[in-house]
Write a structure and sequence with these properties.
Length: about 260
């Protein structure tokens, strides 16, 4: 989508809301705070045409009332399975969202695990995945099970490799530190980490990454890799019985890392 651009709007400690725009109209993904969202719209004189919410956590939806107060009637898309105030276009897996003003169609994917109704939006070579998948990591299992997590990540990993990954937080460096601990040998990951350190030193986002890159560097997308299985076995004292068990152990390990 050469006519569309995606702007990161950093807010709070490490959140991003994403502004998909064509220079005139914009869709906002996960506006956790209204002030930075409104300032970003105003700065480039963009007219908001939609809000897309991935899940119900406050740092992803907190700006909705303020956006609606300023832009009454702004369509707000969000998970049908989660009760989010302000959502007037509830959507679920298999739905498609046509953002006519942007010439963009987004497929709605169920990636529940971090929360029970978590959605991702995918189209135009872009994936907006909230806290389901991070660069080199994934969201905590607050409401779902390891089975849910495996299903969600398998689904995202099956997307076209060139798909750009826009996630909800700048956690990349911390995730890479964990990735290094669980898989000491990974040359692609080390090259990526060097690039990310340079970006962060300049105050720039590490995002978006791509599905292809995540499949090379993200331990949660490759829980069957020999080096990872060995580390999980050493850490927990027993070899994981399956890739899913390895994924569950990885997620639990990361919770206390
Ligand atoms: Zn969250
Ligand atoms: Fe979050």
């Amino acid at each position: 989508m050469s006519t569309l651009d995606v702007l990161p709007v950093p807010f709070a400690r490490d959140n991003y809301l994403w502004l998909i725009h064509d220079g005139r109209h914009a869709a906002l993904v996960d506006p956790g705070e209204a002030a930075p969202a409104l300032a970003a719209l105003e700065k480039d004189a963009l007219t908001p045409v939609a809000v897309l919410l991935t899940h119900h956590h406050g740092d992803h939806i907190g700006g909705v009332p303020g956006l609606l107060a300023r832009h009454p009637g702004l369509p707000v898309y969000g998970p049908r399975a989660e009760d989010i105030a302000g959502v007037d276009h509830p959507v679920s897996d298999g739905d498609s969202i046509a953002l006519a003003a942007l010439g963009l169609e987004l497929a709605v994917l169920n990636v529940a695990a971090h929360t029970c109704g978590h959605l991702a939006y995918c189209g135009g070579g872009m994936l907006f995945c909230g806290d389901a998948l991070f660069s080199a990591g994934c969201g905590r299992l607050f409401e779902g099970t390891p089975t849910d997590l495996e299903r969600a990540l398998t689904r995202l990993a099956a997307l076209d490799g060139s798909t750009k990954v826009y996630c909800g937080h700048e956690y990349t460096l911390a995730n890479l530190a964990f990735a290094r601990a669980v898989e000491p040998e990974n040359a692609a990951r080390d090259r990526y980490a060097a690039r990310c350190e340079t970006l962060r030193a300049q105050g720039l986002p590490t995002l978006p990454s791509t599905i292809e890159l995540e499949k090379a560097v993200n331990p949660f997308l490759r829980p069957g890799a020999a080096g990872i299985v060995a580390s999980v076995a050493a850490h927990s004292g027993t070899p994981p019985a399956s890739a899913r068990a390895c994924l569950a152990a990885l997620r639990a390990w990361k919770d206390t890392f």
